[in-house]
Amino acid sequence: MTENETPEDRAFRAEVRDWLEANLSGDFAHARGLGGPGREHEAFEERLGWERHMAAAGWTCVGWPKEYGGRAASVEQQVIFNEEYALAGAPARVGHIGENLLGPTIIAFGTDAQRERFLPPIVRVEELWCQGYSEPNAGSDLANVQTRAALTGDGAQWRIDGQKVWTSLAVESDWCFAVCRTEPGSARHSGLSYLLVPMKQDGVDIRPIVQLTGTSEFNEVFFDDARTDAANIVGAPGEGWKIAMATLGFERGVATLGQQVGFRRELQAVIDLARRTGAIDDPLLRDRLTRAWMGLEIMRLNATRTMAGVAAGAPGPESSISKLVWGQWHRDLGELAMDVLGAAGLVADGEPYDLNDWQRLFLFSRSDTIYAGSNEIQRNIIAERVLGLPREPRP
User: Fold this and answer.
1) Burial letters for 358-377: b for 16+ Cβ neighbours within 10 Å, e otherwise?
2) N or C: which end of the chain has fewer CB within 10 A?
3) CA distance 165 to 132
4) Residues in domain Acyl-CoA oxidase/dehydrogenase middle (predicted)?
């Protein structure tokens, strides 16, 4: 609790805290602490049940306008909700992509019909979403997207062919928002469109990618004559780049607070581990732990600042700061956890590949500075679009 909270914010904090304490019990008592980076597979059905329980009580999409099923919570109250969620040790969210990425995008750019069709199932956690951006030759260079989409002869549907990769939680998802090239012969940022594609159809093949952690959060997705209704395009044909960048802005702003739920819990666990093992007596490790805490607080303040901009509309390129900061911070935390463990961190808990939480954190966080836009790309965006520096030479 901060000294400058209003009476309304203090009452909201008490309401959130009391509800979590009352409901993370009984059937959901065992859900505390489940999930997180490298552990997305963990107790998925139980976490889905918990999130639907939250939805029934009105605790999903709290920042959305009331007319779309949210609570119209202020920026400060959204911060409070995420802080209390972390303090309660509540499980990692399963509806994150729909609630924090796709939902705000449809609210900002979608049609009334799209809002009516897609927003309520997100609020109720009845439909889960994944993000179809990266491709084998279009990862950080997203403008090189080659997945094609064209309207059928009668104009009733989009026909989609191509491949996406590193698609988080695709196996669990009902829908995908995909950036596709809809204008033949177009290149780079032009000719792209933002389509909403059902995943449960014959034209979609999902192949899990086994990661260093032994789990498969990331997937390859192949579209082979996949179909979606012509109306399932957000914005106009050719506006896909603009819409996609807005979605990334939402991901790097508001959604960062939800992500910090896990970060805060992980940092506290590393601190507790250092106390148990005596590693905290090492002045260098103690300094790194202190810096990690400071970094998380800075991350929270920056996300709050970004959210203030989001409240006025779609976020701008400044949101890249959030991605750059949290990606580096989380990777450093994984390295710090291994250093706190020392030699014990080199030995698996069991055969054939039974990793502990710290080993999973270290291995998974290696990807944090790459996915959702690599550090190099984020620095370019900040330099060129925020600071106004000269553009990097391009071939």
Assistant:
1) bbbbbbbbebbbbbbbbbeb
2) C
3) 8
4) 130-225
| Single-letter amino acid code for the residue at 69 | G
7-94 belongs to CATH 1.10.540.10: yes
* Residue 385: other Cβ atoms inside 10 A: 14
Q: What is the CATH number of domain 253-386?
A: 1.20.140.10
Question: CA-to-CA distance for 33 and 88, rounded, in angstroms?
Answer: 9
- The rounded Cα 348 to chain-centroid distance in angstroms is 29
Q: How far apart are CA 180 and CA 178, in angstroms?
A: 6
Non-local (6+) Cβ contacts of 63 within 8 A are: 70, 71, 72, 73, 75, 77, 78, 254
The confidence band for 116, taking pLDDT boundaries of 50, 70 and 90, is: very high
- Cβ(194)–Cβ(177) under 8 Å? yes
Catalytic center residues: 251
Decide which of 1.10.10.10, 3.30.2010.10, 2.40.110.10, 3.40.50.300 is the CATH code for 129-238: 2.40.110.10
H or E element, residue 221: strand 219-229
Q: Please compute Rg for the chain using Cα positions.
A: 21
CB 169 within 8 A of CB 129: no
Q: Which residue has the tokens 């949290």?
A: 326
Give the type of residue at 27.
D
What would the pLDDT profile of 302-336 be if each residue is shown by its tens digit? 777 766 655 555 556 766 777 888 889 999 999 99
CA 79 to chain centre: 16
